[in-house]
Amino acid sequence: MTSTPRSARQPPSNGPLNYNPNDRSFVHPHEIPTYPTQNFYRRCVLNGFQIGSWIGTALGFNLIVVMALVWSIGRVFGRCLGRGPKPVKVEKEWERRITGERFSSRAEYYAEFFGYECESLEVETEDGFVLRVHHLLSKKHKQLGHPVILQHGILSNSVTFMVNEERSLAFWLMERGYDVYLSNIRTNFKMPHRHFPRSDPRYWAWSVEQIAIYDLPAIVNFVHSRTGRKPAYIGHSQGTGTMFLALSRGMRPDIGNKLSCFVALAPAVYGGPVLRSFPFSLMRKFRSRKMWSLVFGVREFIPIISLLQGVLPSWLFGHIAVPVFCFIFGFHTTDWLQRQVPKFFRTVAVANSSELLYYYMSKLSYNNCIFDTTTTEPWFPASFPPCAIVYGTLDTLVLGKPLVERIRQHEPNVNLVKVVSIEGGEHQSPIWGVNAPVECFEGIREVIEQTKDL
């Protein structure tokens, strides 16, 4: 089936930076650096520093790869001795099946492979970034059902919801008649800015607040105006943290009035212990912006990863990425279908801003939360939509339980309609887990149906 590329750029509005700047904000302040117009001299100086950063981070990344390979060998021996979480049982038919599916980074490929059409839409933010939104179309369901937005996590893109074959969340929702939109943050898929080229540091000068203030309102407004209905918003990891920011006081809580519900999978609000272990423990040392910029540059974070994705065969990159990202993020993968794991990791390590990672290392890893936890004053106003939270008990990257407790104790404006704790689940389990359709997706469907007419 052929994909249907289509441009549907949402014109920007001239709204303020904050929805209500007079209201108190509970977000830890993170000032984005400003850069002057890049003349020839400044470009030469910047490129000189960037080359040094590229070489340094490339050497560091190669060292991480070697350490990860050694670590993975040790983990294999440990599992042979019965250490660590036990693998989840998988139906033999699914475990042994051969689909003919290849490794790919294209959303259109996975959509077509499983019988859907994929529209490539464009949405422009108020600050000039053009975002890629993928819209799935099905021949099975001619009449589009309730609209659903799927928003990915950090170092990822919309494809992350499409790589688990028929058990992919995007396809699972499509089979049940929902109208699925897969959104992306700024710079994903090398999408442009109205004024700045990718070589300009201003193209990369953004963090989670910019995603919350600009990207998410643009996406929600676009889907809401296109469908005429309040969409359900389902985020994973950073896709939840940024929505919690957007819906908080002093930010853009007005978009809560345009959502039927907010489902947070592995919510990135409270940081987990992995952020204090190696290599994050080393990255935390560069808390000074000058030192961070000198080591990691002011453009793309560790650009050698994008280079390797471009020059290595997709299957090879996927197999190399497995031990590396499991080592870095502490993934155990025991509740994932093992034959699919390399394909999963072909879709991660998407080019992200160095400034974004600086925020996580200088703010979240020290404060352990994206909000001020020293106050019991509510973070969220009455416009907050009905909410559901899903988290894994073995997630060490972010922690879901403290967020649930905070909402129940101090957030009277949040209607927490459902909480799902996946026993033995980790950070990616809500979307990649073998039993995700039963443990997670069915609950998501219940929440959508329960709230869509409110």
Automatic annotation (TrEMBL):
Pfam families: Abhydro_lipase
TM annotation in the entry: 51-73, 314-332
Region listing for Disordered, in residue ranges: 1-22
Keyword Membrane: yes
Partial AB-hydrolase lipase domain ranges (all copies): 108-164
Taxon lineage: Eukaryota, Fungi, Dikarya, Basidiomycota, Pucciniomycotina
Keyword annotations from UniProtKB, A to Z: Hydrolase, Membrane, Transmembrane, Transmembrane helix
Protein name, UniProt field: Alpha/Beta hydrolase protein
A Gene Ontology molecular function term of the record: hydrolase activity
A single GO BP: lipid metabolic process
InterPro entries xref list: AB_hydrolase_fold, AB_hydrolase_lipase
Keyword match Transport: no
